[in-house]
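Hi W., the flavin-adenine dinucleotide complex you wanted:
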Amino acid sequence: MSQFRFSRRPDIGDSVSVSFEFFPPRNDDMEARLWETVKRLEPLAPHFVSVTYGAGGSTRERTARTVNRILNQSRLVPAAHMTCVDASRAEVDEVVGEFVSMGIRHFVALRGDPAEGVGARYRPHPEGYSNGAELVAAIRNQGDFDVSVSAYPEKHPESPDFATDFDMLRRKVDNGATRAITQFFFDNDLYERYVERARRAGIYIPIVPGILPVHNFGQVANFASRCGAHVPAWLAERFDGLQNDAQTHALVAAAVASEQVLDLIERGVSDFHFYTMNRADLAFAICHMIGIRPGLANGGSDAAAA
Ligand code: FAD
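Structure:
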């Protein structure tokens, strides 16, 4: 049915805004691939792009280098992710200050996962910030920046209940968070219910759905189980038997993610954050499906000049 709904909305690209997430490359080959991705997605004029930050500051230099290159060699507006893991408050403040001097005005503030990996017990650094809310306050202490934070439509795995999660999200908002970006999910009802509950809890910042195009179903299923995201049986069924058929896998992935995004648009969602895994193909195809095209995106006049 979605193609009929879509055909009634030819202006959809004008009202929809997207952002893209990248991770800092580990070597020259990955850097070249990321840069191809950046250049392919740039004409879509995303609202912003963000660059993740590794556990314990392990990607501090690489995140900084990537953000700096995007700032200086593209027309994209980069946001820097920051975490609290294994760093004192002074160290975190220093890194934030370095990003600010570089020209960064948007942060994605996270507590982060323990260096031992998702699922291990989180222990704050003895002199560090202990959660995302404290980090938001520290960043806002340095200036009036845009600060995005995490949100979990299926609850954070460490959280005993949704009330604890909403309490944390409210503390982040009270400390100056301007937007929440969700963990990826595949069931739009869960997202819709989460947003409704957040509004009832008095949380009014935008809660932007994080969309994960499925580049590799096996990897996604594995990662989802560790971070508390549910993989519905229908999704497994769609990718069943495609482990060695990359071409069909990609076509199915584009169809699945487009369907998800179009359904969210039907439900009134207008902003989307794509976890790109540093690959442009699926994100580009989905943007095309929702009317975001080179030279047309977000009103598009400057993209057209590219
Ligand atoms: P918080 O918001 O501080 O806490 C998450 C939840 O855990 C809270 O809602 C609360 O309910 C519960 N909780 C926290 N502390 C306690 C406690 N002491 N007792 C009980 N419950 C508690 N990770 C990275 O390493 N680098 C990144 O760049 C990165 N980017 C991300 C981007 C997005 C959009 C998202 C959704 C996640 C990202 N992550 C990243 C993963 C994130 O770091 C993990 O999910 C981490 O486990 C929690 O970080 P947070 O900021 O959500 O934590």
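Confidence is low (pLDDT under 50) at residues 1-10, 298-306.

W.
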